[in-house]
Amino acid sequence: MSDFYNITNETLKTVGPILFVTAAGGVLGKVISSSSMVAFITQHAEVLSAVGIFFPFLLAAILKTAQGSSTVAITTTAGIIAPLLGAPVKTVLCVMAIGAGAMTVSHANDSYFWVVTNFGDMDPEQGYKTQTVCTLIMGIAAMVEIFILSLIL
Fold it and tell me: How far is Cα 123 from Cα 4, in angstroms, rounded to an integer?
């Protein structure tokens, strides 16, 4: 019985912060999605969409960085962008840009950050040097590819 307790206790030490960050990221996402910020962005979406295919990327990246959840960043951004979409090709590129933005900048308020750092046997500082920097590079590289596709299609 004591071996079972130690395993469970160790598991909780590892998983506990991940569950906490996920719950806090979900609550903050709900606050953001129901705040006046979303209404403001929606009301001024035509002006903001002047940045073209970068608008959904930037919006998703800002939401992801602020609250940590890719899912919340994706669903909130999609809800804002959906009324602006027209042609199917534009829709596909927007979905790709939202996904690229939502995977950008994984850090301490992102449960995925803790999964990678804990299972990678890294401390948070090492996680910032690897996970955060790598997800920033991946998001930007994906957006460059999406921008090139938007010029071709």
Answer: 26
